[in-house]
Amino acid sequence: MSKFKTLLKNLGPGLLFASMAIGTSHLVLSTKAGAQYGWIMIIPIILANILKYPFFEFGIRYTNVTGKSLIEGYLNRGKLYLWLYTFITLVTTFTILAALYVVTAGLFINLFNVPGLSVSATALGLFVFISAILIIGRYRFLETSLKFVISILFVALLVTTALVLFKGQITPVEDFSRPELFNEIGILFLISLVGWMPTAVEASSWISLWTLEKQKVTGRKLPLSEALQEFNSGYLMTALLAIFFLIIGWMTLYGSNTELSGNATTFADQVVQLFTTHIGNWAYVFIAVSAFATMFSTCMTAHDAIARVSIDIVSHLSPKKVNFSGRKYFALGVIVLALVNFIVLSAFSANMGTLVALATFISFVLAPVVGYMNLKNVMSTDLPKRFHPKKWLQGLTYLGIVFLSLFAIYYCWLVLS
After folding, report:
1. Which domain holds residue 188?
2. pTM (2 decimals)?
3. What is the pLDDT of residue 7?
4. Can you tell me where the transmembrane regions are (predicted)?
């Protein structure tokens, strides 16, 4: 019991990671995986979570031991490392965040039946509301509020999954045959699922910065074992929620020959409507809350993290090494991100899919490189040897790098051929 109390007290970076990761990769991709291909898709989901684990764990390990961010570690390895990570951040900053807000705004309109609102006006409201939360409440409020949001989300999803399992799988339509997984369409979907499960590898530095902020807020540094225990609990929750969404998609949609939309907002609305048809209208509130809480918490954590990453990068690239860690710089970063992404959202709404595809391409292709950079950090002299990852974890890291490299090469071949 004392261990559980310690874990609850230490909840922070791992919780934020879970909140950030369970966005479109879970709500859309996991559900769609179960809906289109059935239970077999649990294999790539589990595989992706296992093989990517070291890259995210290193964000906690490096920062907990050294008191530095992974980004500062990249600079210590050489400026090329830092510039490469800056390029990835620059591309994702102006695309992924805008896309997340578009999906969340669309979900709000569809799920809560407010058709009079436009997506851009709703997104603007979300930008203002979330920016205010982050600036006024900062890390402490973000962590506390997410304990409630994630708890509600986990319970709502647990109830929904239990209801779906109790109701049983739908009867497949006549002459139903599972779509081919190993053709071009199936492989591209598989790459998307693995690439975003549990999230993009560059988010490892986000966890690193949350760890630093947690230390600053609490005024203490956790022993490495406790910090890793807290992260592992968040990581396990992320994997479990992916499986919940997979089960929901499999039990309610697989075999129905339903034409699923490629648009994330429309797809989520489709899923909610199909749930209520399968389970009953009374279950709507559980499903609507699950879907919206998933995307809202992702927007909040991603906005916070990207602001922190941007500030950290600028401070390390600054010729005079100016310290931008003050409250006013964080507030400025949050506001600038909101403004820039709202402009991107408004100006490029018709081409949002193309912009996200570009960010996805860069994220997938450079994922093994970021993984290798993280390994270089934790194996460097910045850490005493006793804190270096164990042999099995190093082996898993190399396996993950090979796995992601093969996916990246094949993805490039598909996209560019």
Report:
1. 45-416
2. 0.89
3. 45
4. 40-60, 80-109, 115-136, 148-166, 186-212, 233-253, 282-302, 329-349, 355-375, 396-416
